[in-house]
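Re: that chain you flagged

S.,

Sorry for the slow reply, it's been a week of failed gels. I finally had a moment to sit down with the sequence you sent. For the record, here it is as I used it:
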Amino acid sequence: MSSAASLLQRQGSNGAATQIAGLPRELLERRAGQRRGMLAVQAVSYGLIASVLLV
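Prediction finished late last night. Pasting the structure tokens below so you have them in one place:
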């Protein structure tokens, strides 16, 4: 498991993660898509929880 410090060390000057160990672009795009999907699931989940708590 990587720490926050190691994640920050991997970031480029524009804040985007730099390409590490020559990973193929397709793999990075797939991971980014999966990450976006998981964030969307979390957002929906938090919204449902908030609506249940408000009721």
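What I noticed first: Residues 49 and 55 are 10 Å apart (CA to CA).

Talk soon,
D.
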